[in-house]
Amino acid sequence: MSNDAQPPLIELRDIIRIYGMGEAEVRALDGVDLQIEAGDFVAIMGPSGSGKSTALNVLGCLDRPTSGNYRFHGTEVANLNRDQRALLRRHYLGFVFQGYNLLPRMTALQNVELPLIYKGIGHGERVERALVALKKVGLADRANHDPSELSGGQQQRVAIARALAGDPQVVLADEPTGNLDTKLSVEIMELLHNLNRNDGLTIVMVTHERDMAEYARRLIWMVDGKVESDRLTAKGAA
Amino acid sequence: MLWETFKLAFQAIQRNPMRSFLTVLGVVIGVAAVIAMVTIGNGSTAQVTADVETFGANRLILSPGQGRMGPGSDASSVKPFTLSDVDKIVDQLSSIEIAVPTSTSQLVAVYGNENYQTSVTGTDSGYLSVADWDLSSGRSFTDSDETGKAVCILGETVVEELFGNANPLGEDIRLENISCEVIGILKAKGASTFGTDQDDLVLIPFKTYTRRIAGSADVSMISLSMRDGVSTDRAVNDVTMLMREIRRIDPGDEDDFTVNTMEQLSSMLTGISDVLTGLLSAVAAVSLLVGGIGIMNIMLVSVTERTREIGIRMAVGAQASQVLLQFLVEAIVLSVLGGAIGIALGMGFAAVGANVLNIPFIPDLGIIALAFAFSAAVGIVFGYFPARAAARLDPIEALRH
User: Fold this and answer.
1) A63 touches chain B (CB under 8 A)
2) Strands (DSSP E) found in B155-298
3) Chain A within 8 Å of B4 (Cβ-Cβ)?
4) Quick check: is A224 in a domain?
5) Which residue stretches of B145-231 are H helix?
6) CATH of the domain at A180
7) Is residue B315 within 8 angstroms of chain A, CB to CB?
8) Does A14 fall in a domain?
9) Which pLDDT tens digit goes with each residue over B323-348?
């Protein structure tokens, strides 16, 4: 079976993202070329202001590049409008944020159900699928707890379950361990690593911690809006 | 999906019950005011109709001059009626069953040490039928009384003022210079729709009145009772034709008399109550407008507070239209809840008001439905702007909030 016939899951070509105009113009992304195959686990690192978060926003179709091509499954998505991008996120993407971003006063289960509501999945199946996702992150027994009753690590697990619930093709994680201490960070990274290895989940993660990036298979180093290096990690090479 | 949106709206409202209640207070007050006004208005209209019936639904009142009954009519410059007019009406018109002359003066009635100013009306025994009035005790005028005897029938108010609890039958009271014997007492009718006390009167035989009080034989008004089954229009027409003939009015000249019907009276009175209802409803509409602005204000605050939530929803795939719908539905649910509370409150007020004012309590389903629709409309109109603000948020900015 040859991979050549199938386009890569994600393909960025000469992506430029400019904020502001004239004197205040900032080139957050300045010609990014990148390919990510299905099943990969990519960590993006770089100094602050290097454009790594912007890159993740563009990959997540939350932001739109000023110019360049973004092919998702071979389909050009750089020029989609707001509603089309929302549909793409709904059906193909999952998000994990640094600050967890769970909805307060809703149980863990209800939070995980959220993407499924927008997918139009009925209540019964929704609860079932949300519970499966919670089980994957080891929190099936906390389904009916509010986020305020959960520890930071547990909250981030719920957020990962939410990202998984809709069966996305890529999970985009923005500093998922940024608010956690080392021990909890390791737990979260091991969870992501296992999801990638065992379930074949494609993950793109922005981090500023080298230790965490080592859980990925591939490490992209960005500087000044450009990809400076792109190499396999120890795990990826193994 | 829509069901989820409604559920979400209820959750958001429950989260802040006090704030939600204060938010919709304007709508509550507006709707309650409209419902209470209209319900009480309906009750008073029904009451007017009922009052007119106690006044004698078949009754016509013939008065000289073109002025309507009430202020502005100048009795001195117009040609009065005569007793022969009364006889001619009864003899010649098949549509009229009874015609009685009435002339009235304000006089002081005296009994012992008590004196009381009241209206003294000279009329005959037919008056009680025309006015649909019964005696609570005693008797009406006899033919012999009507030759000019000094007898009188008292209204309940006069009895209370002059006699207190004593029995007035057979006693003599003094009216101006004449002393007359009380032969009957009228049943109490209560206040008329105009607010005047219908029981504040003394009836004496017409001839007694003309000879001993007025000093002239003029009839100042004629009360008529239509025969059953005769239309008001026909009776009015008959009376008008006859009176024009008697009073020799040339064709083309205006009548120099007026026939008032109870229908005119009741439509005038209900007209007044309609105008009042209209005015108060306008005030209520302003209150609804202010209530709507209250909802808009809180929804804008809510959108700001929930910016991050909006960002999360957008990130997991909510489209702008879904975010818009979520906030719009929340505003609509809020204002419809307010409307429902307002309807309940308004009905409560109306029930209490109807009880206090002694009018019937008549709920109007149409106006309840309208109030409901109106509060939903307030939600849509005033919820749209905040909802659009939410839908237009940029997901990245919203998540960073």
Assistant:
1) yes
2) 172-175, 178-186, 201-205, 221-226, 257-261
3) yes
4) yes
5) 156-163, 206-208
6) 3.40.50.300
7) yes
8) no
9) 999 999 999 999 999 999 999 999 99
